[in-house]
């Protein structure tokens, strides 16, 4: 795991966009694993700005999102389908036939998950997976206790996760209780992983991430076993780590 320290949210987003653009430039038909949430919004904004200024093309890019709420229609403004369309897909020249998200309304969820994993494999696997991190250490929606062997599956969301995401909904009761998420094994198969963290609310989990052994009670700790993981975090998110520790992890 290589740590890159950013001054603030804006710098984190700019650095993250650079990593993604390097990937796209080195392989114009890259398969990108994408994330939702507040942390990655600025990164999408930077990619859109670059697309407008430099005409970087997404014509041959394929994308797979990490997760989707169960039971929300694609049109629901809180669905991750709607988030991706609004904040990224509609703003770059990516053909919609090349963007994939789990279907949270699938009748047969097991079949949906299997098909999703197969599709990723069929397109050659994920070259670069973008990740945020939950305050409880979840990646995607792999909550504490998730198996490291899991592929795409249906999960029950922790109350704390529903509370953290309630800010987007009218009330906590409206936050779905379940979601479909790529599993930890699916995420670990990505050739490269880019995890972003910003803000004081992520400082405790980042401290734990760098100090804890690999444990499924903090799912993100598995990332230390991945050969090519970059973490870009801002100063607030790193504020519980000593300067010397930050230097050590930056190597
Ligand atoms: N399922 C998403 C994750 O993919 C995201 O990384 C995380 C952090 O969200 P945020 O960036 O808004 O803090 O929580 C959500 O629940």
TrEMBL record:
Task: Please provide the record's keywords in A-Z order.
Answer: Carbohydrate metabolism, Hydrolase
Q: Which organism is it from?
A: Metabacillus idriensis
Q: Give the residues annotated as active site.
A: 67 (proton acceptor), 136 (for ring-opening step), 138 (proton acceptor), 143 (for ring-opening step)
Phosphoprotein is among the record's keywords: no
Q: What is the protein name for this chain?
A: Glucosamine-6-phosphate deaminase
Q: Which CDD domains match?
A: GlcN6P_deaminase
A Gene Ontology annotation in the biological process aspect, one of them, is: glucosamine catabolic process
Domain of life here? Bacteria
Q: What is the main EC category here?
A: hydrolase
Instruction: Return the HAMAP family for the record.
Output: GlcN6P_deamin
PANTHER family in the record: GLUCOSAMINE-6-PHOSPHATE ISOMERASE
Biological function: Catalyzes the reversible isomerization-deamination of glucosamine 6-phosphate (GlcN6P) to form fructose 6-phosphate (Fru6P) and ammonium ion.
């Amino acid at each position: 795991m290589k740590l890159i320290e950013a001054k603030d949210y804006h710098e984190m987003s700019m650095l993250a966009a650079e990593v993604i653009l390097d990937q796209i430039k080195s392989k114009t038909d890259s398969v990108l694993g994408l994330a939702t949430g507040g942390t990655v919004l600025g990164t999408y904004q930077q990619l859109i700005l670059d697309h407008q200024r430099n005409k970087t093309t997404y014509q041959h890019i394929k994308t797979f999102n990490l997760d989707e709420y169960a039971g929300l229609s694609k049109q629901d403004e809180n669905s991750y389908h709607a988030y991706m369309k609004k904040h990224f897909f509609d703003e770059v020249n990516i053909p919609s036939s090349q963007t994939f998200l789990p279907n949270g309304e699938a009748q047969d969820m097991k079949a949906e998950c299997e098909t999703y994993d197969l599709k990723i494999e069929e397109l050659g696997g994920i070259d670069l997976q973008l990740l945020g991190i939950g305050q409880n250490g979840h990646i995607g929606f792999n909550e504490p206790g998730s198996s490291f062997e899991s592929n795409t599956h249906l999960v029950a969301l922790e109350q704390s996760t529903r509370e953290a995401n309630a800010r987007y909904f009218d009330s906590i009761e409206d936050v779905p209780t379940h979601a479909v998420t790529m599993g930890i094994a699916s995420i670990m198969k990505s050739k490269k992983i880019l995890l972003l963290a910003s803000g004081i609310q992520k400082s405790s989990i980042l401290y734990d991430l760098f100090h804890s052994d690999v444990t499924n009670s903090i799912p993100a700790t598995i990332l230390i076993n991945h050969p090519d993981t970059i973490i870009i975090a801002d100063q607030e998110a790193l504020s519980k780590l000593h300067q010397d520790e930050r230097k050590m992890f930056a190597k």
